[in-house]
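Hi everyone,

Forwarding the result from last night's run.
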Amino acid sequence: MLFDLTAPYTAVCLAGMCKNAGKTTALTALIRGARARGVTLALTSIGRDGEREDLVTGTYKPPIYVTGGTVFATARDLLFRCDATSEILSLTGIHTPLGEVVILRALSDGFVELAGPSMREQLASLTDEMKAFGAQKVLIDGALFRRSLCAPETAEGIILATGASLCPDMERTAADTAFVAELLSLPECGPWPNRAAGRFVRGERAFDDLSAALEAAGERLYLSGAFTDAMASLLLRRRGLPQEICVEDGTRLLLSRENYEKLGARGVRFRVRRKNTLIAVTVNPFSAHGAPYDPAAFLNAVVRRVPVPVVNVWEECACS
């Protein structure tokens, strides 16, 4: 089911609400779906993925198993950790702390570890290059707190993974997931102003400073880059707020649900220059830190709150 939802998209980013949210399990479900349908995949990661133990938490992580013909990009220092026989297709010139990113094609089935670029432009270039080597769909293993790398210029669609590791309170996890889903589903704001200079635009003027922009007239505030909790706190201390705040896309909104709701209560709406496409939400009822959720109850709690399909990938992988 999950793979079929990605059919219209050639580049898909997976982002997790937290560590152990089930992102790699979702990736595994997509790999299996592609294999069953004869689709050639390309894989890479914004950070590092495929290792069997999380380097930060020490918890188990499911490995990534690919079939022959899969294209994948990883850092040079991880090549010895990949047991799939592979041929090198390209040295990309993209450098990471684990070495240069290399594009390979698996010649046999086997396990791989992935590590890729940390900049949007590099990721977009890498995606195009992997497609040029015959990949029909590119899967990017992403991260919630670096979700700007899942912006529309790098990924046509996003799969959001959530799970019991986020919080012991199931309803809170469902609500927090719905909040992120809302950020990734915001409507477009219409024409974007020509920006001669400055990070912020309000009315007919451009500003480098948010405080100065808030002093100007105009119903809309446009900004490049991220909108953060610090910016939200500044707005909440003022009167006469703009009716709309427009950002490049939903991945640039890095603020808490509390501040988002407070601004909404003050009449502020958020809009985007380019709409993200949230394909689906996957749910993982198991926790790396404590008691699991009831799988059916968790699935229903998320289904009630989000406007896209919700998939329990643990059950999907168990049935495939």
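The chain has two domains: 2-185+277-319, 200-272.

Cheers,
N.
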